[in-house]
Amino acid sequence: MKENKNNNGDIVTSVEDSATIISTLEGEVNGQEKCPKCGSTDISMNKNNGKLRCNFCRHEFEPEKVSGFETDISKLEGQVIASGATKITSTEDIVTLKCSSCGAEVVIDTSSSTQARCHWCRNTLSINEQIPNGSVPDVVLPFSVKKEDARISIENFVGKRKFFAHPKFRAEFTTENIMGVYFPYMLVDINAHVNFNGEGEHETRSYYVGSDEHRERRYDADLYHVEREFDIAIKGLSVESSSERLNNTSKEKTNNIINAIMPFDTENVVKYNANYLRGFTSEKRDTSIDDLKLLVDTQGKDIARYAANDTLKKYDRGVKWNKEEFKVKGQQWMAAYLPVWLYSYQEVTGNKKILHYVAVNARTKETIGSVPIHMPKLIAVSAFIELIGFLAMLFVDFDYKWAFLLAGVIYFFIMYFRYRNSNARHTYEKETKREISNLRNVDQFIRSRHGLSSAWMDGANNRRVEGTKVNSNIIKQIASNKTIDNLTSGNVVADIIKDKIKKKDGQ
Prior knowledge:
Elements: E1 3-5, E2 11-13, E3 20-22, E4 43-45, E5 52-54, E6 60-61, E7 78-82, E8 94-98, E9 105-109, E10 115-117, E11 124-126, H1 130-133, E12 139-140, H2 147-159, H3 167-172, E13 179-209, E14 216-240, H4 243-246, H5 256-260, E15 270-271, E16 281-282, H6 289-309, E17 319-349, E18 352-361, E19 367-369, H7 375-395, H8 407-420, H9 428-431, E20 433-452, H10 467-506
Parallel strand pairs: 3-7, 7-17, 12-17, 13-16
Antiparallel strand pairs: 1-2, 4-5, 5-6, 8-9, 10-11, 12-15, 13-14, 13-17, 14-20, 17-18, 18-19
Helix pairs in contact: 6-10, 7-8
């Protein structure tokens, strides 16, 4: 495995240097797809059923699946990487594609697109040289939700949030300009061995002590030594592979909205074909496996922790893991394009700009969005509710009358999160497919505890999620790497040109 140094001088290793690379383009002709019935290259996707359709003879044919990968994740060993997921090494964005059908040349800017149409024969061209470039995916999940259905979903979502919506947004809102976008993701399968060791508590009794204003609730619980050891097979963990979309804490863009419409039915992905992109836009992947591995391993551990919770229902006060081991035995990486219907609106307040998204999962129709809020109106209504709560505290006989003072504050935050969904995210720890095997349980009684003041075990961490905290560090590292790449790219290009000149002179 090749060793390199990062910006801090630490020794790091590249995953790809010791991985098995599987080409997803065996037998393919770059940029060429012909109708199996008549041989025409005028192919498009039937959005009603996801099949490819010949626009000449109207013949429809089934999408092709990728092959050569381990389907039984429990048998996965080492690192397996699809060719489309390999490191992006291309230094030139502007390339010329030669149509393999008629020979015409088409110039394409790969910084904004990975496919084009031949303006002579209408053949779909694409950059399918995956091994040296790594910017084209292995698989694609075709659109199945129609644009009209997506428009209705977005209109219904926004329509339920118009009361506190900003007046300018209400006046300018229209779904006529929604776009179908393929976003880049990494799909990762993980085979791992897990060993958790700690303590858990089971409540045996709850009761009150004291009287009147000094009345307090207490709990009795049994304390156990708990161990869970098992193998886990994680299938299709989906991670954004665009550094911009990975930044879910951005203050300029509501990227968490796109993250929150997951999961996709990735078991239905088909082999990448540029014809699926016809009529839609797409974004390029700009991260490598080395950039994403820490995030994937951390999310895999979160998934394992929640899988263990299925065996811990006895411990209703929680479990405190003192030792957590997550050993990866095998990983399988695949680059994918996943479909999203997207509405965007830029809110401008003085020098501050926020790009709001309303997104529709183009497979499941899951719809989540961020709507600009008219803050003066929300604050005024919240203040009125706070006043009502204050009056209720004065005249209503209730043991916890102080709670009325929180009414306005609670209402404000409920409405804020309902409109902005700033806390929305993909709950991958629960929604990612996983299967555990070879389970070993240890539940050993230690002692009974009495008079506990908290309803939850002190230090309980079995519902902790760490993957959401890793993103910010990854974004900083990627940004730092890009800065270095930009500073050195001129020398790299110069070296390539010099090398080509030398080769030419030597011929």
